[in-house]
């Protein structure tokens, strides 16, 4: 259960939603019939050891609400209060997301990241408002709002979620405590306008590592996430803390060290994202495995990662002098803790 009351969620976020959040994809048994407890606990402990303060428990990987609650319970038991846990509202319907978040609340989730199902097709801002309000009203957890072009809301408004819509939601949903502001991605206009309009009353998050470190020279940002940066080891928490504590130039020196890895993930993502408008979680799972996380198989339907992209990602880590396994890629789908 959350350590705060719903009415106090924004005060909790102001005090506690600090630092960086990674993303943890669950591990499965080799026959894909159950969760891999040892693999999950290893990954949760490792992301905490790297300096991340939160992680998103990813649900866009054919996991059930009940399994996600077990995933959450193991994660909470592994690190206790050392690592905050995001529930990922990435299930297929509003009803299923509400069912899942209620289970996750009891299992130890601290905050929810609100996604929208692929089959949700709003034709008005009222449709988006109604879905968002229904989810927020159904949970006791703090909620991070997530405007991003992935949802396709630009047919309703060029920003996807207009400032007027965000204003209504903040006024009517007191447990919306943060905005993961990616309107107009890959550009930063949505982030900067959201910070300007709403930064005094809610936490504004820029999850894009390549943007936030330069922007922290000019913007007071206390949190970054959720984003898949743990594949670069402890680099991101380290540079984030440097920039936040006034050591921006030192942060930028490390920033440029990471450029080969940054370029590698940009090339890999750019190879599939424009045509799919969906994140290939197999890419992310492989990236984790390179950095010492469990890896292992994912349930169907799941995209594949071709050898050529594996080589690009591996070389990016090596060139940036980040931790990278010497294990052969054939071991990735077996995982470090097969069961």
Please write out the topology:
Layout: H1 9-16, E1 19-24, H2 37-49, E2 54-57, H3 65-79, E3 84-89, H4 94-107, E4 111-114, H5 125-138, E5 142-145, H6 163-172, E6 176-180, H7 189-198, E7 203-205, H8 209-215, E8 223-224, H9 235-244, H10 248-257, H11 259-270, H12 273-276, H13 281-290, H14 307-319
Parallel strand pairs: 1-2, 1-8, 2-3, 3-4, 4-5, 5-6, 6-7
Helix pairs in contact: 2-3, 3-4, 4-5, 5-6, 9-10, 11-14, 13-14
Describe this structure in words.
The structure is a single chain. This protein has 14 helices and eight strands. The radius of gyration is 19 Å and the shape is globular. The chain has an eight-stranded parallel sheet with strand order 7-6-5-4-3-2-1-8. The two termini are 30 Å apart. The chain has helices at residues 9-16, 37-49, 65-79, 94-107, 125-138, 163-172, 189-198, 209-215, 235-244, 248-257, 259-270, 273-276, 281-290, 307-319; strands at 19-24, 54-57, 84-89, 111-114, 142-145, 176-180, 203-205, 223-224. The model has no long low-confidence stretch (mean pLDDT 96). With 339 residues, it is of the alpha/beta class. Helix content is 44%, strand content 10%.
Short account of what is shown:
Helix content is 44%, strand content 10%. With 339 residues, the chain is an alpha/beta fold.
For the residues shown, what is the average pLDDT?
96
Helix run count? 14
Strand percentage = 5-15%
Counting DSSP E segments of at least 2 residues, the number of strands comes to 8
Strand order of the largest sheet: 7-6-5-4-3-2-1-8
Give the distance, in angstroms, between the N- and C-terminal Cα atoms. 30 Å
Helix content: 40-55%
Please trace the helix and strand order, writing H or E for each element. Answer: HEHEHEHEHEHEHEHEHHHHHH
* Major β-sheet profile: 8 strands, parallel
Chain oligomer state: single chain
Pfam families: DHDPS
Family: Belongs to the DapA family.
Protein name: Dihydrodipicolinate synthase family protein
Organism: Geopseudomonas aromaticivorans
């Amino acid at each position: 259960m959350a350590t705060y009351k719903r009415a106090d969620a924004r005060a909790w976020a102001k005090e506690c939603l600090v630092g960086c959040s990674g993303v943890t994809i669950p591990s499965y048994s080799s026959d894909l019939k159950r969760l891999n407890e040892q693999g999950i606990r290893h990954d949760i402990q490792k992301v905490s050891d790297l300096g991340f303060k939160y992680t998103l428990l990813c649900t866009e990987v054919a996991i059930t609400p009940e399994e996600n609650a077990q995933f959450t319970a193991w994660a909470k038991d592994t690190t206790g209060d050392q690592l905050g846990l995001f529930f990922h509202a990435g299930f297929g319907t509003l009803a299923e997301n509400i069912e899942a978040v209620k289970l996750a609340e009891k299992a130890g989730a601290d905050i929810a990241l609100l996604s929208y199902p692929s089959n949700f097709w709003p034709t008005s801002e009222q449709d988006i408002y109604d879905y968002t309000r229904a989810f927020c009203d159904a949970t006791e957890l703090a909620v991070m709002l997530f405007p991003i072009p992935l949802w396709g809301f630009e047919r309703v408004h060029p920003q996807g979620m207009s400032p007027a819509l965000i204003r209504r939601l903040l006024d009517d949903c007191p447990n919306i405590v943060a905005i993961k502001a990616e309107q107009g991605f890959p550009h930063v206009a949505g982030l900067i306008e959201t910070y300007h309009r709403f930064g005094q009353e809610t936490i504004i998050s820029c999850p894009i590592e390549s943007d936030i470190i330069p922007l922290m020279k000019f913007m007071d940002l206390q949190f970054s996430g959720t984003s898949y940066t743990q594949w670069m080891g402890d680099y991101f928490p380290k540079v984030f803390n440097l920039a936040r504590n006034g050591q921006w130039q030192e942060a930028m020196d490390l920033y440029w060290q990471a450029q080969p890895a940054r370029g590698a993930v940009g090339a890999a993502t750019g190879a599939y994202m424009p045509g799919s408008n969906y994140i290939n979680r197999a890419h992310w799972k492989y990236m984790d495995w390179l950095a010492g996380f469990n890896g292992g198989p994912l349930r169907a339907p799941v995209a594949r990662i071709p050898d050529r992209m594996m080589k690009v990602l591996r070389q990016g880590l090596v060139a940036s002098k980040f931790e990278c396994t010497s294990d052969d890629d054939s071991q990735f789908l077996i995982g470090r803790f097969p069961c």
